[in-house]
Design a protein that fits this description.
The complex is a heterodimer of chains A (about 150) and B (about 160).
Chain A: E1 15-20, H1 24-33, E2 38-45, E3 48-54, E4 61-66, H2 75-86, E5 93-97, H3 100-109, E6 113-121, E7 124-130, E8 136-141
Parallel strand pairs in A: 1-4, 5-8
Antiparallel strand pairs in A: 2-3, 3-4, 6-7, 7-8
Chain B: H1 9-24, H2 32-39, H3 43-54, H4 58-76, H5 81-87, H6 93-104, H7 108-117, H8 127-133, H9 142-153
Helix pairs in contact in B: 1-2, 2-3, 4-7
Classes of the chains: A alpha/beta (about 150), B mainly alpha (about 160).
């Protein structure tokens, strides 16, 4: 079945994708204070906090920093999710940068926990780091378009 | 849920740090003391907690990473097998070859021949995910695997590594 005819059927003007984090204050300090994101929305309702951040270079995209907690999930499920995050079992995240080595030096100096130094593979360079919760990011400098 | 002991996220995060360190330098020696120090856990509790968290003991996890890395080097480079063995944390070609076959079911040479003849369409996937997808699933100890296979095929236990 050919789906390509549907591709432009709905105009999408923004995107929010959420992460589960161990502690929203800690995640805020990491994403804002170390990675250079800015707070887009920080709204509280009782114990619930909708917190999204955004990179100034990617204004159509918001990264949600959410705590697994009731009432969105029950307490036992929340516990399982917190464990999964802490074990690094959540899906991979990718940050595409223009200079992986320079970004590595800068972020490392700010105390970001790298799990792999910049490594060149087939012309692209990548490094890995984790946020304080355990979410794993791969920072990739794409292969330059060949001239 | 499983009947494994569940640990607090704070401890799991520290155990993950030990796993990350093995991932980053799987060719190095990782005695329990060293791993326990990374995780700020007592050596007596480390191995058990690691297994609870990640489903296999730390030394076996390390073995899967070494085999994974060796497989990648066999596939992607033309380096001599001895060099690959030494680079990935083994002290001898014999131990490497035997362990490799026990875990993967084929010798390093066989894997290299098979992998290099197959065309790969994995260029678009970041290297570590390709590599992780090809990590051997080692659900039992290598010694147990050896024992079962010896039982199945009646192979003499000291059978020499094929060249």
């Amino acid at each position: 079945m050919n789906h390509s005819a549907l591709a432009n059927d709905i105009a999408v003007t923004g995107l929010v994708i959420g992460l589960y984090v161990h502690d929203q204050d800690e995640a805020h300090d990491f994403y804002v204070g170390k990675l250079g994101f800015r707070v887009h929305t920080d709204a509280r309702n009782g114990d619930y906090r909708w917190l999204t951040v955004q990179h100034p270079d990617q204004p159509a995209f918001q990264l949600g920093l959410f705590a697994p907690q009731p009432p969105t999930v029950d307490e036992d499920t929340a516990k399982t999710l917190r464990e999964a995050v802490a074990k690094g079992a959540m899906p991979p995240l990718v940050l595409v940068v223009d200079d992986c080595r320079a970004a590595y030096e800068r972020l490392r100096a700010r105390g970001v926990e790298f799990t792999q130094e910049p490594t060149e593979r087939y012309g692209s360079v990548d490094a890995n780091f984790r946020d304080p919760s355990g979410n794993g990011w791969k920072m990739i400098e794409a292969r330059k378009a060949s001239a | 849920m499983s009947d494994r002991t569940r640990h607090a996220p704070e401890l799991l995060r520290r155990l993950l740090r030990a796993k990350d360190r093995m991932d980053a330098a799987s060719h190095e020696a990782w005695p329990v003391q060293r791993l326990a120090r990374v995780s700020h856990v007592s050596p007596a509790h480390f191995a058990r907690a690691f297994k609870d968290a990640f489903g296999m003991p730390p030394h076996r996890y390390l073995l899967t990473r070494r085999i994974e890395r060796a497989s990648a080097l066999l596939r992607d480079t033309d380096q001599p097998i001895l060099d690959i063995a030494l680079q990935t944390g083994w002290n001898s070609l014999g131990t490497f070859g035997r362990t490799f076959r026990d875990v993967t079911g084929e010798s390093p040479r066989e894997l290299r021949a098979r992998a290099q003849s197959a065309a790969h369409a994995l260029d678009q996937v970041p290297g570590c995910f390709v590599s992780a997808a090809q990590r051997p699933g080692l659900t039992i100890a290598v010694s147990e695997k050896r024992r079962r296979e010896a039982g199945d095929t009646v192979v003499a236990p000291n059978k020499k590594e094929s060249p």
